[in-house]
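G., the chain you wanted modeled:
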Amino acid sequence: MKKYFIKTFGCQMNHSDSERIAAYLEDNKLKPASNPEKADVVVFNTCGVRQMAEDRVYGQIHNIRKKKQKTKIILTGCLANRKDVQKRLKDKVDLFFPINEFEKLENFVIGNSLEIENLKLKISAQKISHIQESIAYLSINPKYTNNFQAFVPIMTGCNNFCAYCVVPYARGREVSRPHQEIIKEIKALIKKGYQEITLLGQNVNSYHDSKINFSQLLKKVDAIPGNFRILFVSNHPKDVNDEMIETVTSCKKVCEYFHLPLQAGSDEVLRRMNRKYTAKDYLKIVNKIKKAFEKNKPGKLFSITSDIIVGFPGETKKQFEESAEMMRKAEYDMVYFGQFSPRPGTAAWKMKDNVSKTEKARREKYLNEILKKTTSENNKSHAGKTLEVLIEKEADEFYYGKTRTMKNVKIPATGKGLVGKILNVKIAKANAWNLEGKLN
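Predicted structure as tokens:
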């Protein structure tokens, strides 16, 4: 029997896609291999957000092809549609397929006689009629890699065309899954005992199926019986409205956590990024979120996190300082920084990348010091409280988990077999980047 191995790079959406690719291959008689060297088919699910991730793909494909000439190498994800990547890897990769053209994988497997039977996607004609072909693969029941946390894609693609981003080119335009299909998948997960459901999309809050928008979908998921958490990523500030804020802050199962990507604090940089909001617009949303949490969940802790790119083409020191000032005002609980990396095919690719690597690193370090102050202060509010923590792993006689505000918690492992459980933890110490506590 033939074996496969999947290597996933990048975001949670790629992780979710890999789970569906794995399920498809296993449903059709391939077995998973423990490493690429033992596989007949190796799938690379790639990320094109950073040059570093791209370079890792090149290196790993080269090594596999050098060791095993007969291995079939398949490349999907962000890099699959790039002509320069296809040209560079044409003698090493057997198939390039964008995830929204899943039938290319099916045709390839059939054409290469990989001892697979019944290769057609198991999607009824009725479903095809109301789902665009580009997301038909999302109807495959995935091979979940975790038995208590699950990623559930609700839409894919993007219509925003931010100047630095490859997603609209790699995944196409926004397409939403039918809400009935999403609810069915989540109900099945809850029945199996899953503790945490993360709704996925490049722009989840632009979700729309018939008359169901993102806020209405959240309410439907929140109404599913069971003790579980709801998270969602990622959303665009331009689509955050009062209805969404009210829904997120009032639903009982939706975590007290709001990830709101800023990317830059300068209006001019935001304009060049094509982000479609101003710094003032963004800060107004942040303040609304804070007030809504305080009103709808009085006394409960909450957190707001963000993404910021440093060194976008043309970003002056003054414009960079505006990002720093925005961080001080927003008082984030966490920020995921990215040093600008030019991506072929995007609008920013044609811009002059005139901020040096040294300066980008300096700017990231500067913002990280601001973040350290706000996270330290915010974490102090957790000390002494008893909080619900989902235990994610055990290592070196400690449990590690997350609160409903997505704070990392380190706990002495006094009990056994607690991974995957939601437990009450008394927070004894608040550090800059994590909390420490004991099981109650």
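Residues 115-131 have pLDDT under 50 and may be disordered.

Shout if anything looks off.
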